[in-house]
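One chain shown below:
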Amino acid sequence: MIQATDFHKAPASAGSSESLADSPAGASRVHPGGDEARSSAFWILLVLPVALGAVGLSSALLSLWDIWTSDPLRSIGLLIVLASVVLTLRVWRQCNWELHGTWWGLMPIGAALAMSVFRGKIAWIGAIDHFKFDFLAPKVALYCFGSGVVLLFGGTRVWRQAWFPLALLLFAQPVPTVSTRYMDLPLQGISAHIARSFAVRIGFAPTNPELLRLMFAPDFGMFIAPGCDGLRGAITMGYLALIVGYLKRVSLLRWGSYVAGALLLGYLFNLIRLCGLVIYYRVALGHALLEHLAKQADYAIGGFLILIAASLLFRVVMRDEQDPRIKVRPDPKAPVGPIRNSSVYPKVAAFAALGLVCVLPGFRAIEHHRKSLVVTFRDGELTRDQLNHLMPQQIGAYRLSRTWQEEDNRELRVELAAYAGPQAREFTLGVWLLPSEHSMNDSWLARGEWPLMRRDVVFPTANGQPVLFDTAFYSDGVTDSFAGNAFCTPSSCLLFHRKPASYLALIVDPIDFSTRGERAVPIFFRIDVPHGSLPAARVYDALSSEARGFVSSIDLPNLSGRFQ
């Protein structure tokens, strides 16, 4: 009996079928992937299916690229994706490059590729009031693809450990569109008010022409108000705090306080930047060299202040890390458990085969993107005069009187034309230039113009074609306005119905706003008249009748074709 006990306690010999890798204690010391994980051939081969998958994801990736390169506020999304990749690889390395992948990983990879390939054919949209959710958005496809790769090769344990880095992919579009309404515009107003108040404090009167030049002079190279709302700096600091809190593994409550504090700190330092710019502009007025360097001064002041803000954030984090009273979540350990060496090369082959299926649609998406109106009508691509000549010279009894454009961040966004007609009435006809869905009624709503009435109305247009317009009636006590918005392709206008406040819809063949030659172009009209004593209902009926006469002579598909 003693001999039997001694036999089981004896260490396994070199020729024994039992090895150290079969015991829990030895599991963490043996490379989980065996020889395959140590082989550079595997990592080289892994690049092939990932590259094929990236081509299959081209539609989603190019859509994100357009967002990052055309919107300064959302450009940080590219850095967030890079941070996600680096942090995911960091977690995988902490798990000893474990290769316990599951074939279930092919499902999210396939779903991601399908979302990208069929992005222009199907959409799944939900909304609660002004908050919209696109369940098949490019960022969702990117998250599914990253999760699938980790599951297929690393396994479920690595996927669970990498939950935060993978979740960062859902912030590839870092700021939701609704932020314009609830954050961007209010912050613009506050920033403009503070900048103006500070300018008055240092000796400028609000009616002083120098103050107007100070605030809005384009020859200075930038504008203080209303665009510099501090949202970019606040968002950057917020995401920085989010990642730092994860790396330092602080408690959830402290993690949230880091993010909230970083957002406030970023906005506070933006206000300091604005005041610094006011001082710079005050000094620069009358000095041509300093005026010419105003934009560089803005970058220098902003960069210096954001560096100070980031330093303060890191100082707080490091102080908290050394405080013994603050609880810190333990670091994840390398998984300990039974090791099963399974071949990863069949998974590489299956991944590559799945990517090959989507290569052709991916290349087509790249070709369409190359031909698309990615950055529309910038100076140098189509001049302002050329844009103006695209507007009709005559619409029924209304004749073109003037044309102009609206721009944001030096990018032309709207082409506008005024048409004078009977009774000295003047209609404005406008075309949204960017390759995206846009309702001017929603845009005016975001600017603080609230309609007294808003409804869908069918107006006949040129050639007797009925078009459904999203119309709205505005009255602020000074001006009464009637406006309508429609989406038109070169072949027809779309029956666009405003959706209810809350909905969930699966849309087959959604509207294409990006493919040149066939895209839907948002077109709108508006008439403004002085406010009178008539009831709002009668004014609405009168303006609606005039709008019907104006629109009846517009060939909207032809106008859409001009702006492809």
User: Anything to note?
Assistant: The chain has a mean pLDDT of 79. The CA atoms of residues 219 and 292 lie 7 Å apart. The longest helix spans residues 252-284. The chain has three domains: 29-176+333-371, 179-322, 384-562.
